Structures are given as structure tokens and as C-alpha cells.
Automatic annotation (TrEMBL):
<feature type="domain" description="HTH cro/C1-type">
    <location>
        <begin position="7"/>
        <end position="62"/>
    </location>
</feature>
<feature type="compositionally biased region" description="Basic and acidic residues">
    <location>
        <begin position="86"/>
        <end position="98"/>
    </location>
</feature>
<protein>
    <submittedName>
        <fullName>Helix-turn-helix transcriptional regulator</fullName>
    </submittedName>
</protein>
<feature type="region of interest" description="Disordered">
    <location>
        <begin position="66"/>
        <end position="116"/>
    </location>
</feature>
<feature type="compositionally biased region" description="Basic and acidic residues">
    <location>
        <begin position="66"/>
        <end position="75"/>
    </location>
</feature>
<dbReference type="InterPro" id="IPR001387">
    <property type="entry name" value="Cro/C1-type_HTH"/>
</dbReference>
<dbReference type="Pfam" id="PF13443">
    <property type="entry name" value="HTH_26"/>
</dbReference>
<dbReference type="InterPro" id="IPR010982">
    <property type="entry name" value="Lambda_DNA-bd_dom_sf"/>
</dbReference>
Length: 116
């Protein structure tokens, strides 16, 4: 699989144990272990977002794309776009959840209509 999950490396760099990461993200220790050992078939954007929030990192710190062969290298720009899109989606969801907590309404009264 060309996408590697570097959760263990990122977690250790932040000085957290698997138990601490599990407790702070709400995922089970077994799930964390499965992801770190490369036995998980996939990882959701929600999980990626929680890991990034707790580890104070970007999705690119947890995910890495490595081509299986030379043909894959020619597709690297499209795969980079997929990872960038995933990263932006996680960031958008994170910002969206933060903004709903402290949402402010603004009403503009008497703007500059007809001003040249």
C-alpha cells in the first residue's frame, strides 16, 4: 500500500503513550495499536482529525505517500492532491466545529450604496 500511516512516529515525537492517545482521542487502545502496526485497512477523516488535534500536527505528519513502483511516481501529483484535499477537509471540519462554538452574527446597517 503506497500510503503509510506514521501515527507511532508522530505520537512518540510528542511524548505520548498509546494509552494516553487512546484516552485523549476516545479510540480504544486496540484500535491505536492496529493503526500503528499497519493492520488497519483504512482511517477515517474523523480519526485523522482527532489524532491531529491531540498531537497538534497536520495530516501530512501522520500520512505519507510512497509509490510502490516507478509507474506510481508519475501519478504523484494526483496523489499529492488527494492528500492535500484530505488535509484541507480535516482542517475545514476542525475550523467549522470551532466556529460553531463561538459563532458571531454581524449586521451591516447603511452601507455605501451608490458611492463611486
Amino acid at each position: 500500500m503506497p500510503v503509510l500511516v506514521k501515527l507511532k512516529k508522530t505520537r512518540e515525537a510528542k511524548g505520548l503513550s498509546q494509552n494516553e492517545l487512546a484516552r485523549k482521542t476516545g479510540y480504544s487502545l486496540q484500535n491505536i495499536q492496529k493503526i500503528e502496526q499497519g493492520r488497519a485497512a483504512s482511517i477515517t477523516f474523523d480519526a485523522l482529525g482527532r489524532f491531529c488535534e491531540v498531537l497538534e500536527c497536520q495530516p501530512g505528519d501522520i500520512l505519507e505517500w510512497r509509490p510502490d513502483n516507478i509507474d506510481d511516481k508519475t501519478r504523484s501529483s494526483s496523489n499529492d492532491q488527494v492528500l492535500k484535499t484530505a488535509s484541507e477537509e480535516v482542517e475545514r471540519k476542525s475550523e467549522s466545529s470551532k466556529s460553531t462554538k463561538r459563532q458571531t452574527r454581524m449586521i451591516i446597517i447603511g452601507g455605501n450604496r451608490g458611492a463611486a
